[in-house]
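Re: that chain you flagged

S.,

Sorry for the slow reply, it's been a week of failed gels. I finally had a moment to sit down with the sequence you sent. For the record, here it is as I used it:
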Amino acid sequence: MNGTGPTVEGPLAIVCGGGSFPVAVADAVARNGRRVVLFPLKGWADPSAVARYPHHWVGLAQFGRICRLAHQEGCRDVVIIGSVIRPKVSQLRPDLRTLRLLPRIVRLFRGGDDHLLSGIGRIVEEHGFKLVGAHEAAPAILVSHGTLGQRQPSAADIADAQRGFGVLAAIGPFDVGQAVVVAGNRVLAVEAAEGTDEMLARLATLRGAGRIQHAAGTGVLVKAPKPGQERRLDLPSIGARTVDGAAAARLAGIAVAAGNVITADIADLVRAADAAGLFVIGVDPAGERTG
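Prediction finished late last night. Pasting the structure tokens below so you have them in one place:
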């Protein structure tokens, strides 16, 4: 696969799932003077958000329609961004081109998320497009090194963060998750299929039930990509909602792998963290923080 950045010629096609990231990427790309064409997924993308840009609504299994319209618009580079709950193959309503690919797609569903997403990336590029990571098209969405906002982590917080990065590196090859919570060198929670928000909600419930003895205001949510992950399709993300979940779980803050985690609105993230009294920091998982 090609890991280089996007070309500068021609409009950028953005296949949009749910959430705020698709339009955040579109806004960043448009500010740099490049035309964008959105392909919002029916049932997932926000109609009011995509209305500001040229767009074509598509079904989740209408790959043929996406290819045809993207070629007509002159798009060569494609970004796929936004939340989509992994569907059952039986729920797909494929168009003709997708139908021809269906045996291959079924095989992709018989593995973890990394297996599925890597296979989707190959299919996209085999049909004449260049798959571009959202962070490549819009580098401003990456969380950089250093502390964001007013709260500073303690030495113990940094130690918990580094242990969390070690845990994620160890379990990553098993395609488990992209987040873990560590307090006092103890792993309190590991993200699995439920996602970060539900993991934090589970942790808040455990706190409320007295199952966690660490004092409120201790513990770090750690997020980082899995080793070998298809980063053009699935970088971990944080936002104000993540901060709310961490606050409800009574953590000290959030540490992410700097340059490898995205946020749709950095200013909103900082405001939420300051209001909650939590730190947010970009860390080099291999060593000390910088910045």
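What I noticed first: DSSP finds ten helices and ten strands in the chain.

Talk soon,
D.
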